[in-house]
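Hi everyone,

Forwarding the result from last night's run.
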Amino acid sequence: MECGALQRSPGNEAHLKAMETAVESPDGRRERRYLHTSPEFACKKLLAAGERRIFTFASVYRNGERGPLHAPEFTMLEWYRAGEPYETVMEDTLRLLAIAAGTLSYRGATLDPARPAERITVAEAFACHAGIDLLPTLGDRDALAAQVKDTRLAADDSWSDIFSRVLATRIEPKLGRERPTLLYEYPVIEAALARSSARDPRVAERFELYALGVELANGFGELTDPDIQRARFIAEMDEKERVYGTRYPIDEGFLSALALMPEASGVALGFDRLVMLATGAAQIDQVIWTPYEGDAP
């Protein structure tokens, strides 16, 4: 299945930057559109229409992302299961990783992808790798900042800014070193599209798969309450406007579809990153057939 790339909204995550375009009608009218940053909204509309198991292998587009692991256009493998818990798509990702290659390698390190995975919650990872008791700080920027050591913070950093910086610098590099790692139960504030955990409402049914310090997949137990989803999108766009001075429209058709969508779980896997590790490539452009050619600085 291939979803259309032109969307009314590219997604409503605060720090995700989209590529904007316009559709021109024969009479010259122009309608603002965006290239999708993920096929997620379209896939969930299909679940609401009655599909039960779907996948898409799609090019996606993200502005402001460039580096060894990032490209402005890349390939995403995304799939959904209606009526199944997010633990099921966790197992999907592990099975896919195990058959990708006999050995994964990156920056001189190697990994057997078939080894039994480490499973660690975000709170456990913060305690183990950064010495931070995370959950009591939720919503309290100063409480989290007080526990952060050896990480430079700015005075205007929000709780989420500090969380993301610690995750990127002190935790992610240590994940998936000896075996694949499933990092799960993200704080709800860091999982705008995931439902809250029945075990602990402070955290959400969100997981990420890591190998050799590289994030390969991001999955959810999907949120299906349109009112909660709208409130989360507004909060995300308020933050985008605060930081970047802009906001993206909310896809009302998507919110309407959520009211009809069955309980489901889904995951998005960065296919090019997986190919990188399977081939031992040093950067993502080496495995993209026709990589973006930017102007020389």
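The longest strand covers residues 73-82.

Cheers,
N.
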